[in-house]
Design brief:
Helices cover 30% and strands 28% of the residues. It is α/β, with parallel strands linked by helices. The chain has one domain: ATPase, nucleotide binding domain (Nucleotidyltransferase, domain 5). The strands form two sheets. The protein has a six-stranded mixed sheet. It has a two-stranded antiparallel ribbon with strand order 5-6. The radius of gyration is 15 Å and the shape is globular. The protein starts with 6 loop residues before the first strand and ends with a strand.
């Protein structure tokens, strides 16, 4: 169980540019950001990018096991280097997105990442948002915003994990 009050949240983001995984820490109470913490980046190798690119546009019934392994390993490698963190926000990797039709397909397993890191992981933001009638564009904004904050892009974010799964 998370403590009440301020937490150090580690957010991770790997986008469709397939360049790599960004991560950053913020200290927050879920309403305000009190401090920006450490940041990190783990680039995808050329081979990893090729695997991920080949998986783009694929849905859950397609074989994406190799892409899944790349996403899990890259995130675990980067995120394991952070200390004094209370929780992790894990977006996963978007492979396909059709909010008005088939939904969205994110690869990544927050439960497995939680086991690897020994931390609670909030994840699967987009799938949950789609199920609730959203378009899955902003449902992940707080917990992954530390990664954005680390790149110099700052905004006002609210803490909401109700659209995601917590493990």
């Amino acid at each position: 169980m998370l403590k009440a009050g301020r937490v150090r949240a580690l957010g991770a983001m790997s986008g469709t540019s397939l360049d790599g995984v960004d991560a950053a820490v913020i200290e927050t109470d879920g309403e305000r950001i009190f401090a920006f913490g450490e940041t990190g980046y783990r680039p995808y190798t050329t081979a990893e990018r090729a695997v991920l690119r080949a998986a783009l546009g694929r849905w859950p019934d397609d074989d994406v096991a190799t892409a899944y392994a790349v996403v899990q390993a890259a995130h675990a490698e980067l995120l394991s280097g952070f200390e004094d963190v209370d929780l992790v926000g894990f977006h996963g990797q978007t492979l396909a997105h059709d909010p008005g039709g088939r939904g969205t397909h994110q690869i990544g397993d927050g439960a497995a990442l939680a086991g690897a890191l020994g931390l609670p992981v909030v994840w699967d933001f987009r799938s949950s948002d789609i199920r609730l009638g959203g378009r899955a564009r902003r449902s992940r904004r707080f917990i992954t915003s530390p990664a954005r904050a680390g790149s110099g892009r700052r905004g006002r974010w609210r803490f909401s994990i109700s659209a995601g799964s917590a493990t």
